[in-house]
Amino acid sequence: MMFTKRLHEPIMRGEVTCSVRIWQRPRAKVGGRYALGPGFVEVTSIRQIDLADVTPQLARRSGFAGVVDLLKVAKHGPGENVYLLEFEYHEGAPT
User: Fold this and answer.
1) What is the pLDDT of residue 59?
2) Separation between Cα atoms, residue 85 and residue 95, nearest integer Å
3) Which domain holds residue 78?
4) Euclidean distance between CA atoms 36 and 91, whole angstroms
């Protein structure tokens, strides 16, 4: 799972703990560990949501200034399904 570079530091500090993705189907899995900086992100939940559930508050929790800012980055390919991924950042290599 990839993150835009400007989100790396806030994720590593624990300030960003979720991500909204627009995919055809999930491209990550619960329990999946994805390298980021000197550690990794572990996905703790994935759930499909409606586009209307993407609020300014959720956009800020995801590290974006607002909904429009988030939606410019969230769409990956031709998908139209909206997913909310919750995750935790861990220091060190995945075990």
Assistant:
1) 97
2) 21
3) 5-91
4) 9
For the four alpha carbons of 8, 95, 83 and 1, in that order, the dihedral sign comes to: positive
CATH number at residue 49: 3.10.400.10
Q: How many domains, in total, are found in the chain?
A: 1
Alpha-carbon gap, residue 12 to 87, rounded angstroms: 11
Burial environment of residue 69 by CB neighbours within 10 A (0 to 12, 13 to 18, 19 or more): middle
Q: Round to whole Å and give the CA distance between 90 and 67.
A: 27
Instruction: Give, for all 95 residues of the chain, the pLDDT tens digit.
Output: 899 999 999 999 999 999 999 999 999 999 999 999 999 999 999 999 999 999 999 999 999 999 999 998 888 678 899 999 999 999 998 77
